[in-house]
Amino acid sequence: MRNAAILLAAGNSKRMDGVVSDKILAPLGNRPLFAHSVAAFLASGVADFYVIVCRDQRQLTELSAYAPTPCVFVRGGKERQDSVANALEALPADIENVFIHDCARPFVRPEQLVGLLKIVRLEKAVVLAHRVTDTIKQHADTGHLKSLDRSRLWAMETPQVFSRDLITAAYAKVVEKKLPITDDASAVELLKKPVALVENPHPNPKLTTPADLPWFEYLLNQIVPPLPTAHPFRTE
């Protein structure tokens, strides 16, 4: 049985305000954002097959230069859950576990991917996450505030990793109920199945706005250990 990675790259980059037309292809160091996630997966060796979710033919052409092998490309859907559902349908029959990763998070580390694979074989669902450190309050329509216990609050990251049977059943439920979800663990919640959390002590932010770009360059140059350079895609 093999493991697969779904690499999500079809976001519309609306919040980048035109500073970059496609944040997945935004330059970071000597390679585009997308290539950093690919490099981490290749260095880890956790995936035997890749599904790359792209937005259109133009993006597919650009991403092809950095794509891992073996892989297939699928077209993204209107919403995130549509994109993931399309990718799940493209998986070969012998896939046992599935990584789902948002390539707008370029700082995932190979050793983390290896650790997540070990856990998903036991737990069936595991998510990279970090503890919430801000004070979080819930605002009611009445204007009243309710403080939430931040010791029990976690911010979800990617990759999120699942047994293929579990995540396929979970997304079938999403489609059945026509529910919008913003991460894959939310789909598993619909089945009332447990999800393991792995606390990430390292920065793993998502590129969202133009203000993130200088921060990402700082992280790349000062904090994140360099990935191996010998990968089967161009670096210029």
Automatic annotation (TrEMBL):
Substrates-to-products reaction catalysed: 2-C-methyl-D-erythritol 4-phosphate + CTP + H(+) = 4-CDP-2-C-methyl-D-erythritol + diphosphate
Known pathway: Isoprenoid biosynthesis; isopentenyl diphosphate biosynthesis via DXP pathway; isopentenyl diphosphate from 1-deoxy-D-xylulose 5-phosphate: step 2/6
Domain of life: Bacteria
Site (Transition state stabilizer) residue list: 15, 23
UniProt-listed GO biological process terms: isopentenyl diphosphate biosynthetic process, methylerythritol 4-phosphate pathway
Family: Belongs to the IspD/TarI cytidylyltransferase family. IspD subfamily.
Described function: Catalyzes the formation of 4-diphosphocytidyl-2-C-methyl-D-erythritol from CTP and 2-C-methyl-D-erythritol 4-phosphate (MEP).
Protein name (record): 2-C-methyl-D-erythritol 4-phosphate cytidylyltransferase
Lineage of source species: Bacteria, Pseudomonadati, Verrucomicrobiota, Opitutia, Opitutales
